[in-house]
Write the structure tokens for this entry.
Amino acid sequence: MNVRGRAMRTIWPAADGRTVEIIDQTRLPHELAIVELETLDDAARAIATMQVRGAPLIGAAAAYGMALAAAEDPSDNAIETAMSKLAATRPTAVNLRWALTEMRRALSEVPESRRFAAATVRAGEIADADVAINHAIGEHGAGLIIEAWRCKGRAGRVEVLTHCNAGWLATVDWGTALAPVYRAHNEGIPIHVWVDETRPRNQGASLTAWELGEHGVPHTVIVDNAGGHLMREGLVDLCIVGTDRTTAGGDVANKIGTYLKALAARDNDIPFYVALPSPTIDWEIESSAAIPIERRDAGEVTHIEGWTEEGRRVTVRLTPAHSPAANYAFDVTPARLVSALITERGICPASSEGLLELFPERRRRVVRE
Ligand code: MRU
């Protein structure tokens, strides 16, 4: 997407052909800082500290992390150690495991002397595929927004509510939940986005608001608890969110608070859509009980970070010094509350049958004796 007139992705190989560059998302929206990742440790730290975040981008960053690891030591042992290190950075987004498995396969097919080159090529392919997938999600999802506008008699604007950041910053480019928004906006459909601030890391307030603003999409930041009220007031036409892991049965893990929005949407007969690239589907699990829910440092709840008007980064405490805090980073929205899944292959019901219609190669063959 364009930032101040310049086309940018969130991650790309540096001009030296060896290292990788990223947008440091911990500094947005106040500063557009580019950071260089030179080592496997740099890549692991960038994912764990959320300099890069969002399920598809975590996958791409892990893929580039494996290339950096192969440059340091391409031996089988070192590659396995690198995989374990990257896999341990964040537990919920299944794209991480998917990308690491892809990289291990690509590396196992070539001798040690060619592993860095092979890893660089495969990581680039994973990044490019993410862009193409999200572009297709945008095309399919925009149809839903255009349909909502038609239902409103092409009057006013389509009101979309989104949670967290599932825009281009959460992917390599385009985004998942926001790809349909960008596509519809580019086609001239009048659209406005309600942006949940998304405590405690505030991905909505800092990242979604920033990228929508850069692209010129009208939006309003709201506190996390406002969505239900807006829905009751008839101010939301549809919700679109992303996901970090969708089970084979269509249950959806996403940023904490997504479930409450889905409940409010159901109570108000508002469609609740989830946009996802296929590497976010965990075909190995049917039940959401098996999804590991990340628990992050309680300090993200007890403290909040911001920037003074003079541009100084400050952290302040919100809670009493001795009150314990818990930081659950994701929740699960059961498939029954999801109106449809938007994938690169089209739109389907949130169910195993729905997913298998779009991805028939995943049907398990029943072998008869
Ligand atoms: O903790 P984060 O910022 O990595 O969480 C991101 C989300 O929950 C997104 O909604 C999800 O990864 C989908 S991104 C296209």
Q: What stands out?
A: The pocket of MRU is lined by residues 53-56, 93, 164, 166, 170-171, 175-176, 203, 242-244, 254-255, 329 (CB under 6 Å). The radius of gyration is 20 Å. The mean pLDDT is 96.
